[in-house]
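Cross-posting from the chemistry board since nobody answered there.

I work mostly on the small-molecule side, so proteins are not my area. We synthesized 2-oxoglutaric acid and want a rough idea of how it might sit in this target. Sequence and SMILES are below. Is it possible to get a predicted 3D structure of the two together?
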Amino acid sequence: MTAAASQELLFLTPQQKQFFDDNGYLNIKSFYSPHELDEMRRQFHELVSQTENRPKNMSYAFMPQAEGYPVDPYNPLNVVGMMDHVLANEYWFDHFTDPRVVAVMVDLFGPNIDFHNGKIRNKPPGFVCTQGWHQDWPYERHTSPDLAAVITYIEETGFEVGATEVIPGSHRKGEWPTYNGVCVADDLVKDEKPVVMAASGGDIAIIHVMVLHRAGHNFTHTSRHAIINEYKTAETIDQWNNRCAFAGLPLARSRKPLMPRVHCRQGRRI
Ligand SMILES: O=C(O)CCC(=O)C(=O)O
């Protein structure tokens, strides 16, 4: 990349952009400061423990308590998944519209970025991931595969503690054959070299819509939590009838993030 081109990046280094292009994923350590993480964990606890009187479009999925494992008081109802948590309040709206995240998407995908959808994927104690290797593409077809998920981790997340696994470079091989419309047989990836994306609280990972990945299991007594917001270019057009909250909300035009910070804490912007 030329010096002039690298200056055009809003957030990433040229090496980070190249890594994403080559591998289909990117980890960014300490994207959120300790102060921001404290507030995120407080907001997240509220999100999973106060499930009543939420907007009807927000949905929760609960996991029965796994045999031999306690329920973590931080996630007392064993919430395993949510759709459209972005409707909960201005904090979660601010989280997905954050200009820093939008700048990362501009760097990776181009000048015009829209929101796609927001969800939560938790791994309560004893969680076993039954969804195998998959690309997100069959779940979210567009006219071109210019989408990515941004996963925010809010605690240490390692091997057998809920870490996301990814197969580097698998996004460059097009659409993989599936056995049930979405999952790819282990046999087809047996010669690949998966990477466990161990993360700390405050880290993010960006996952290309075509890269093979899967969530990990959690064999500890502490719940793990991932917030997943997905973004797309304005140019790629939804083909799967996306009815999720704020789908298509314009977030960047001509490389300029559009949304201001909207969440205030103790009278000041975070
Ligand atoms: O929760 C994770 O670590 C990954 C989630 C995932 O694979 C997905 O939502 O497609």
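Reply from a structural biologist on the board:
Welcome over. Reading the output above for you: Residues 121, 136, 164, 213-215, 226, 228 surround 2-oxoglutaric acid (CB under 6 Å). Confidence is low (pLDDT under 50) at residues 266-270. Happy to explain the token format if needed.
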